[in-house]
Each structure stands twice: as C-alpha cells, then as structure tokens.
UniProtKB/TrEMBL annotation, chain A:
Listed InterPro entries: NarG-like_sf
Gene3D superfamilies: Transmembrane di-heme cytochromes, Chain C
Keyword Membrane carried by entry: yes
Superkingdom of origin: Bacteria
The entry's keywords: Membrane, Transmembrane, Transmembrane helix
Organism of this sequence: Neobacillus kokaensis
Entry protein name: MFS transporter
UniProtKB/TrEMBL annotation, chain B:
Coiled-coil positions: none
Originating species: Neobacillus thermocopriae
UniProt KW keywords: 4Fe-4S, Iron, Iron-sulfur, Metal-binding
Protein name: Electron transfer flavoprotein
Gene3D superfamilies in the cross-refs: 3.30.70.20
Annotated Pfam families: Fer4_11
Phylogenetic lineage: Bacteria, Bacillati, Bacillota, Bacilli, Bacillales
InterPro entries per the UniProt record, alphabetical: 4Fe4S_Fe-S-bd, 4Fe4S_Fe_S_CS, ET_IronSulfur_Cluster-Binding
GO MF entries: 4 iron, 4 sulfur cluster binding; metal ion binding
Residue span(s) of domain 4Fe-4S ferredoxin-type: 4-34, 40-75, 77-106
Amino acid sequence: MQSTISATKRPERSINNAFASQYAKSMFLSIVGLAILVFIGTRMFTHIDLNLYGYMVGTITFIGGFFYRFIAWGERPPTKIIIKKGLKLLFRKSTAKTAVNHLAIYDFIKKRGFYRWLQHVLIGWGCVLACLVTFPLVFSWMYFTMADNGYYTVVLMGMDLINIKADGIIAWFSYNALNISAIMVITGVSMALYRRMKNMQARAEQKFVYDFLPLYLLLFISVTGLLLTVQNVFLHGWMQPQMSLIHQFSVIVTLIYLPFGKLAHIPFRPMSVFARNYREHYGDEHMKECKVCGEKFVSVEQSNDVINVLDVNEMNFNMEKDGFNLAELCLPCRRKYRIARFSGSPTHQVKVKEANQNARG
Amino acid sequence: MVKKRLYLELENCIGCRSCLAACTQCGGHEQRNRNYVYDVNPLVNRQTMPLMCLHCVNPACARSCPAQAIQIHETGAVLSALVEKCIGCQNCTIACPYGIPKFDTEQNLMYKCDLCIDRTKDGIPPMCASVCPSNTLQWLTDEEIEAKQKQFNLDNGKWVTSMPYLEGETNVRVNLPGILQGVTKLF
Ligand code: SF4
Ligand code: SF4
C-alpha cells in the first residue's frame, strides 16, 4: 500500500507512470518475460521451430486476453480482498496440501459425484499433459537432437538433459504423450457431452457458447491432433501439412476463447486455495460470536470484510433499533430475525433451536 | 409471455413443508432443498412461515462474491453458484441479509434458491409455488398482485411488499395482510 501512495505523490519519478494502466504494465512485463525465456531456451534464437509459429501468436493473444479479464476481475472489492490476504497467507503450512487437493486431485469434485470427478480428471490432466509437452516445444525451451548412435538427446532450456534410446520405453512415452493426452481428453469430453445430453436438468444454465463450445473446442483439438498421428503412422504423412494447420488453428481459437468462457476457471481456480487459507487463518485467530445466540459462526475478519464490501456497494444492513449488523448474526438467527420482522413476534429471541430444515431428514 | 412473480402471503402457511419437499425434486437441485419454514413463536402457537431467497434486485450475495460465481438471470432470478467458479469462501452466506445461501463444506460449494430457473424462465411456476396447498406461495402477474393490494388495502392501509420493510428492492413480493390488519384467517 505504502508504495502506491508515495507513487501518486511523486508522479514524475515513478516507473508506474510509464504505463497507462496497471494492465498495460503487467502485460508488458509478461511479454518481456516470455521473450527472455524464448531467447534463453533457443540459445539466442538459433533453434526456433517455425512450424510452431502460430502457437506463439496464440499464446501471446491468450496472455493479453487473460490480463484483460484478470484485471477487470481483480478490481472488484471482494476479489481484491481475497487476492491481497490470500497472497499474505500463501506460506501457511497447509497451503501445499490444500493446493494438491483443490488443483490436482479435485477431492471436492469427487464429493459432487464420481462420474463428474472422473470426467474432470481425464479432461484436466489430459490438457495439462498436452501443455507440458507442447509449450516447451513451441517456445523451444525443449527440443530433441539425434546423434548417430541411435540415442536422442533431450535439450531443456539449452542444457542437455538426458540421452534416451530412440526405441526405448521413455522415448515411446515421449512420442505418444500427446496421443495419450488426446485419448484422455476425448474420453472426458464425451462423458461430459453424454451427461449434458442425457440429463435434461439445469438446461437454462447451459448456454452454447459457455457450456458446449469449450467441449467442442477441446474435442476439435484432440481429434485433429490424433489424426496427425494416424496420417503419420498409417498414411505415410498424407495431407499432414494441411491437418497440422487445422490443428494449429483449433489450438489458437481455444487459447483466444480461454480467458472468457467456462475454461477461464482454470487460471482463476488457485483462488480457492487463497479462500481456504483465509478462512482457516482468521478462523483460528478470532471467531465472531453471533450477536443473538453467541454461537461462533465465522471469523471476525471475514464478517468485517463482508460488511466493508457491502458498504462499498452502498449496502448497509445495520439494524439500528436492535444494535447489530445482519452480518453479525449466525445464519439461523438471521433467518429467525427476518421472520420476526415479518410477523412482529421476536422469533429470534425465543431460545428454541430451529426446526429441521432439511427435507430429507 | 406475461411476466409473473413469486408472491408470498406468509401468514397462510400451515407448516406442511411441501415446499421443502418439492424443492428437492427440481431439476438441478440434486435432491437438496434451498428454502426454509420457521415456527414464528414456537412456545406459544403453531404459526409457521416460509422463508426463501427474495431475489434481490441488487443482491448482496452476488456483490460480495469474489469469484463472480452468482449470476443474475435475465428474468431477475439470482442463480445458485456456478460449480466451476465458486471458490468456497462463503462470503455470500455472510452477506445475504436473510441468511439464505447454504454451503456444502465437502463439495466446497454454495447452493441457493435459483427460482427453479428451468421452469420459471418459461413461465412455469417454481416447484414451491406449484405445490403449496394454502396459497402461501403463489405465482402471479403484477396486475394480480395489484388486485390483491386493493383487496387487502381496505382498512388501515398497511401493505407489505418489499420496500420499505425489506433491506432492498426484491423480485419476490412479500405480504402478510391478515396479521397487519388484525384479521384472523380461517385455516
Ligand atoms: S435474498 Fe439473499 S440469497 Fe437471495 S438474492 Fe438476496 S442476497 Fe442473494
Ligand atoms: S462461497 Fe462461492 S458463491 Fe459464495 S461468495 Fe464465495 S465464491 Fe462466491
């Protein structure tokens, strides 16, 4: 905070003023970063694979779109709070465990249903695998050279990483990594599409551009990618350059779409780790007691943060007569208080636990 | 299609909890109800009242959500959290002035009344209003609500719909004509 305040006081000296906005600055920095990485990885641009040029353009467009979305989003008051406090709490002990849970094995999705979980693992990890192989190749951070002895050398960031036998098992997995990932994604996407076709529920929330387009895009990428292999292995490379272009096109379109549609949850999802840390940390620190029943129901920090966020949005739920803010009541008391306001009898003051509210008992 | 609203005549409630059961059966609700029925004065009498999301015009839940997971449908309905966006911070549960959003800790996901959006977007009443046997929950046009206002406005002029009795303008209309007018209804 301090630095931004002093920067506005002495505008002529601050680097921040070189850019029209925070957005332009972040954008500039990431492109410079990318360029430096490409420069190092390619041993000063000597190993650029021009076949993969389209991907590079796609990635840069993606970064632009991503920053545009991210900054518009990060400006919202509640988001700002979670980002700021989440970064501060990033080095909690539990962060690693929460991150693995939320971002790698998706335990919470398993609780939403095994089918959904399996579908998500297949699509998610299929894409991650594909990106891990593709992007280092695209930016020439990684490439292969072959000596006469039948061994490949994997070169990572300009350094020789390992020598592998051209017909060995590691080599087989390296050649086929993209095929494996394509099959994973195709299976996952088919499961997702099947669920949407069969399950007639929640149709209103399914918009073509939001729900189906990303699935079709992933399918398009995977199928064209697999076809490249088929042409290579069975058709002696027939029509391969054309297919390669189509495949590149599919990837570029997806990259451009990514920050705006459903797939945008991928870059934004790490926030759930922030949110968990925020709840745990401030919960351990000081819990808020309900102003009516005394039950500890949320951290003092979060209760105050929510009140402030609503304040910024010109909403104020201070009940002057009763001497509390609604965000200071636990949920059952808040609901009973509303009934009290409707009926005129002080429901929230009656010391009786709320009746069962779950229709399934 | 004429726009209809959910209209609550709270005092009609007989406490049958059909609305809770019906809510579990709506497509996309995954067998969990998102509404409530409360005893008004449990040690004294049997009066009950339902409580559900009032679908605020400026919803506190959505304003407080850092992930923009709570979307507002073009009909004005404030939807349940988008499963892929909700990051599980529970801000919405603290922000809502009526304590409506529910949170599933296992699934790390908030869920709330979506006014049965698959139904109401096509003008079909939400599940709760479809089953309510006592006309507590009704699905009415603005004209019909106005007619009710005239009907109940006879003596002391008291009429509760949203403002100024609620915290903000809502898409759902609330009323309890009998209690405010001191009239006992025969149910
Ligand atoms: S009543 Fe609560 S949950 Fe419903 S729209 Fe308003 S703030 Fe959101
Ligand atoms: S719990 Fe989910 S829906 Fe509620 S405010 Fe947090 S992210 Fe938004």
